[in-house]
Each structure stands twice: as C-alpha cells, then as structure tokens.
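Hi support team,

I submitted a single chain yesterday and got back a structure, but I'm not sure I'm reading the token output correctly. Could someone confirm the output below corresponds to the sequence I sent? I've pasted both exactly as they appear in my results page.

Thanks,
R.
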Amino acid sequence: MKFIVDAQLPRRLAYFLQNAGYDTLHTLDLPQQNATPDSNINTLSIEQERIVITKDADFVDSFLTIRQPYKLLLVSTGNIKNSELETLFATHLPQLIELLSQHSYIEINQTAIVIHQ
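Hi R., thanks for writing in. Yes, this is the structure output for that exact sequence:
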C-alpha cells in the first residue's frame, strides 16, 4: 500500500508511515512541494496507486465527482498536536489498512473511522 500525505498534514505522519513499512511521500517531496496543485496530486495518486491522506475537503469533492484520487483517507480531527495525530494513526493503522484494501474513501476523526460509499 502506498500513500501521499497532503500539505496540511505534517511530514512527521509520512515518516511514521514509512517507518511502518509503507511507501509514503509527503507533498514536500514533490518538485512543487506544498504548492503542488491538487490535480497533480490526483494524477500521481492514480498513476502510482497512492492513497491521498488529507484534511482538504477539495479532495472529497474531486473524489465524489470524478473519482480522483485513486483512494482517499480524510483526516477530520480538527487541529490536534502532531503527537496526537501520530498516536491516532498508530492506534488505528491495522484497521485503516484493512479498510483501505476494501474501500476507496475512508474518514478518520478522534473518535471513529467512517467508511463512505
């Protein structure tokens, strides 16, 4: 499973996923870094079958209207500390991986994981 972490989320999340054994990029790794347009992120996601991890509702709109990106993990926690975000992912990573293998659009917040159809 491969991921791309969008600009609103910390590079620390990408490092966490890399250390867990997943091929993960952060937008800072791309040529245009955090200024990379969403359309370019969508294209990369589809070409490389990368799941976009984001807080950006624009990706939700894109996914629902044109089925881009490849798959979507929406983080709807509001503002939380990076350490809290990492703990959230550490706690739920096995479940997220399982769900993302079966579904294309998942949302995680501080109390639940939601599967969107």
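A quick pointer for reading it: The chain has a mean pLDDT of 96. Let us know if anything else looks off.

Best,
Support desk
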